[in-house]
Amino acid sequence: MLEYERQHWQAGYMLLAGVDEAGRGPLAGPVVAGAVAVPRDCLENESRAALSGLTDSKKLTERRREAFFEVLQNHPEIMTGVGQASVEEIDDLNILRATHVAMARAVSALPVPPDHVLVDGRPVQGLPCSSTAIVGGDGVSLLIAAASVVAKVTRDRQMVELDRLYPEYGLAKHKGYGSQAHMQALFEHGPTPIHRRSFRPVREAAAIKRSA
């Protein structure tokens, strides 16, 4: 999981960071990005210790994600940053551009600016430093995997909080994705202020609610 990190250390980048997002596909809630920067010696050591087994957050159980999240947040040498783009920004910009905004904000939120960023997926515009995009990066880069955990756990916790405001939608269970239960609630009750009206199912539900 450190192949890409070692390649970039050899290229002369001292402090590397990884960045990833959570929440591009849901019908509700913000898109959240996480960024993680770790000094080389610490990353080498912790890859065999506290971060052993860390991989793409989607492949981890919720319990393991939470455990890794606590390590990343509390380790004295690991730096994390979080950025997000609101539902309004998603609707105004489109989800791709809003995701890039969230990623740039996450990198900018790191307490120490990194020399270079490893990005999951395609190239990202607007980052505050140089970057390398790696398709499937959250499965092959430890820094990107760490960022994916920060992004997902942060967003999942936000959706649990939003569930308390809109309990009829079941947000705590599906986290805003278009599950059958979410779609049924959406067409029954109509969209809320946290639903992405630029997404077709939400537009259709809004139109049906208006005509009812």
Can you put this structure into words, describing what you see?
The protein is elongated, with a radius of gyration of 18 Å. The mean pLDDT is 96. α4 crosses α5. The chain is built from nine helices and five strands; from the N terminus they run αββααβααββαααα. The longest helix has 24 residues. Helix content is 47%, strand content 15%.
Count of discrete alpha- or pi-helical segments spanning 4 or more residues:
9
Question: What is the CATH topology?
Answer: Nucleotidyltransferase, domain 5
Look at the helices and sheets and give the structural class: alpha/beta
Mean pLDDT comes to 96
Fraction of residues in H or I helices: 40-55%
Identify the CATH class.
Alpha Beta
Tell me the count of domains. Answer: 1
Spatial gap, N to C terminus: 54 Å
- The strand order across the widest sheet is 3-2-1-4-5
**What is the percentage of strand-forming residues?**
15-25%
Number of strands: 5
Over all CA atoms, what is the radius of gyration? 18 Å
The CATH superfamily bears the name Ribonuclease H-like superfamily/Ribonuclease H
C-alpha geometry = elongated
The low-pLDDT segments are: none
The main β sheet shows up as: 5 strands, mixed
Order of helices and strands: HEEHHEHHEEHHHH
